[in-house]
Amino acid sequence: MTAARGLEGIVATTSSISSIIDDTLTYVGYDIDDLTENATFEEVIYLLWHLELPNKAQLQELKQQLADNMELPQEVIESFKTYPIDKVHPMAALRTAVSALGLYDDEADLMDKEANYRKAIRLQAKMPAIVATFARVRKGLEPVAPRKDLGFAENFLYMLKGEMPDQIEIEAMDKALVLHADHELNASTFTARVCVATLSDVYSGVTAAIGALKGPLHGGANEQVMKMLTEIGTADKAEEYVLEKLNNKEKIMGFGHRVYRQGDPRAKHLREMSKRLTEITGEPEWYDISVKVEEAFTSQKPLPPNVDFYSASVYHSLGIDHDLFTPIFAVSRVSGWLAHILEQYENNRLIRPRAEYTGPGKRNYVPVDER
Ligand code: SDX
């Protein structure tokens, strides 16, 4: 038995949800470029869960269900006040709160298809409320309740900021959510599938997935990108910064990908959004620094930017705290995790690979006072 490090190139399951073939990303057959230009996030959620785009009535029903289920149990809101709030990263708070949500869901351990779908709606709806409420509570602000008349992206921004976002902000958030919704068997989605393949519950699967997304080699990279841009400060310092990091054998966050070779098709949409939004906010330097980092990095390594690179300056332009960037990724990706969890339950088999043993050969036990 020879190990494939990091399971590179291993096909671990079949799936009808999304595909990456020859650097092209599709959700259930629809090209990501097409969906980013034309679909709303709610349409994409429906597509991932039902494997078809919704008609008008189906879309309206889903939107209603999401709006109706956004409000958090009071116990979860109160629990934020018991966290050591100035030390807690919002991804840790999100992971804890999703786990806690399971405690207040009477159907948490019901395993039939309809109950699992109802839980998917509830979780998808409550994720933005958790992120927004925690973000406010830690600043000593009152939580803002969701409004039933608002769309998903709009409600998220409204709960976060406590005021109505403008149309450009809503569109940008909606597109970002579409772009992050699913991505084949990425590390967090695989984690979710491994968890529920033991026939554990939906809340456990999503909690596990949030833990996997949090790491800087995965979703956590977008926050690290913003940290880097801030450290660089001005576009003229970008090249020197990148070369020094590479000389020290350090990774540059937001570049490289396990599957894409020529480039991540999502990055160009975020690049365009970054250019537009940084101009509108009067802070074009964030885009300019990003472009210089890209030029300097790709002149050294043939690794194009991934989804996390330009999303950093996009979220910054939306006035979002930098440590909320990865939680936003989770608010979108939970749609994909839930699609994969439902798919896993439909055709389940325990996921249990093997390890190539590299420890010592056979040894005899030595009693403790002879060691
Ligand atoms: C996401 O899988 C998905 O689908 C994930 C995702 C999704 O939508 O779910 O697309 C979202 O997680 C995007 C990735 C975010 N992470 C980062 O931006 C962190 C920086 N990137 C790298 O750490 C890395 O490129 C990974 C983690 C993305 C991929 O890791 P791999 O496939 O294990 O590649 P590797 O670390 O083995 O790197 C191969 C080579 C190495 O050089 P050599 O030792 O062979 O000389 O490329 C180099 C690496 O050092 N390399 C980098 C680099 N990325 C790879 N060198 C400097 N900076 C980098 N960013």
Automatic annotation (TrEMBL):
PROSITE patterns: CITRATE_SYNTHASE (PS00480). One of its GO terms (molecular function) is citrate synthase activity. Gene3D superfamilies: Citrate Synthase, domain 1, Cytochrome P450-Terp, domain 2. GO terms for biological process: carbohydrate metabolic process; tricarboxylic acid cycle. InterPro entries: 2-MeCitrate/Citrate_synth_II, Citrate_synth-like_lrg_a-sub, Citrate_synth-like_sm_a-sub, Citrate_synthase, Citrate_synthase_AS, Citrate_synthase_bac-typ, Citrate_synthase_sf. CDD domains: BSuCS-II_like. The active site is at 257, 308. GO terms for cellular component: cytosol. It catalyses: oxaloacetate + acetyl-CoA + H2O = citrate + CoA + H(+). The keyword Transferase applies. Pathway: Carbohydrate metabolism; tricarboxylic acid cycle; isocitrate from oxaloacetate: step 1/2. The keyword Transferase applies. Keywords: Acyltransferase, Transferase, Tricarboxylic acid cycle. Belongs to the citrate synthase family. PANTHER family: CITRATE SYNTHASE, CITRATE SYNTHASE, PEROXISOMAL. This is Citrate synthase. The gene is citZ.
